[in-house]
Please model this.
Amino acid sequence: MSKNTSIRNSMRRARIATEIVISALIVGLGGYGIYNAVNKTTELGSADVSDASDIQIDMTQPVTEAFDPNMTIYENTPVSTKDKFKGDLILVNNQHEYLGGNEDLVSINNENKNQDEETFIVGNDFNMKILRCVYQPLISMTRDFNKATNYDDLVVIGGFRTTAKQQELYDADLESTGKDYSTKVAKPGHSEHESGYAMDFTTSTTWDYDGTGKYEWINKNCWQYGFILRYPEDKTEITEIQYEAWHYRYVGVPHAFYMYTNGLCLEEYIDTVREHPYDGEHISFTDGNNIEYEVYFVASDDSSEMTYIPVPSDKKYEISGNNIDGFIVTVYVNEEKAPAEATEPEAPTEEEPSEASTEAEGSVDDSDSETTTEEAEEETSQASEN
Ligand SMILES: [Zn+2]
Model:
């Protein structure tokens, strides 16, 4: 499938990303109207800028056919620059600290009680929490896993974890190995578990999850639900974390698909996206369900409170920070922007910088992030997790 995943030139002219004025010129001729999208840059210097002002009028075609569907019109949407530390695609590892907070968490077992259909995964206690936006994909994946294998023994043994809890696990690992670093437990502040995007699986039959046998179904299919196996066996030098068959991370379907089919770990994917900025070639691909995506990078404007992000004016898109130096825009090429999105406020508040980019935010429930004794006890039982 990776062979089908291609990066193609997405028909945009080179332009200066930070200074863009985009306008659409509508030409009406007799009974026909011809649309032409005209991209203007306020700074010259890009090779093809002269082409941008060409207006081609085809009098023989009605408007619907004359309009080039590949010509995307972009507009700038303002996002709080600090939101680069939030979103489905944040890279959290030894180099990049998790700076979030106010996670919108749910208890897996509590949420299971609210489901109409049967669920096939539990938290090992009621304090096992993950981000609200990760819960439904998890339930869908494990339901389909059950349909495919008849297995119903999956348990989440590691979910959201406070930094204090991470410190405890880290100290315990250093003590047991006598080393001054750990490849088993991420540094406090540097664990994906602190974000709520990660989960560790085990099984209630063996209390050991190695991802083999029938459980291989999960590794092959988890992208369909937006999950990746975060610490693969062949990427330990890049992730700096030992192979963890049980640790899954939510990143969203398009990105999970791309990483899975191209054999990339999250570190590599974030680098790959950075090589595809807005004003260059975008990553374009179609997933296994024939949904077409475009992905590109926009550097954060660290000198300003707000970063202006070029987004398609008429297509569905999502924005996520990468937790390092900018934002990743995901365009759903064949989906039109919902009407509600078109009337979005010009300057979103910090709580709501843009749609979908920071699902992790939302409502704040401080009581949820307290570590309980029960939780602490349960988590200590699995030492070999990040
Ligand atoms: Zn883990």
Residues 234 and 243 are 8 Å apart (CA to CA). Confidence is low (pLDDT under 50) at residues 1-65, 341-346, 348-384. The chain is about 20% helix and 25% strand.
